[in-house]
Specification:
By secondary structure, this protein is an all-alpha fold. 19% of the residues lie in helices and 0% in strands.
């Protein structure tokens, strides 16, 4: 979603986000909507917090992933 792969959100921050979306009836929020929440504090990091090994096994990177039938 617009480049946000993951986020770490404190419980108090999530409560602010949830209350804002409920108040303004935002049913399909994107990560770019979080800046509009009053009093929310947002930070970024310059280094990875969590990462995976390059070329590691994954069930969502193979051919025909979207057409896979279980």
């Amino acid at each position: 979603r617009y480049g946000a792969y993951s986020m770490i959100v404190r419980r108090s921050g999530m409560q602010k986000i949830l209350n804002f979306f409920k108040t303004y009836h935002i049913f399909l929020p994107y990560d770019i909507d979080f800046y509009a929440v009053p009093t929310i504090k947002m930070y970024t990091v310059q280094e990875d917090i969590v990462c995976s090994l390059i070329h590691s096994l994954s069930d969502n990177g193979g051919a025909f992933y979207l057409n896979k039938k279980n």
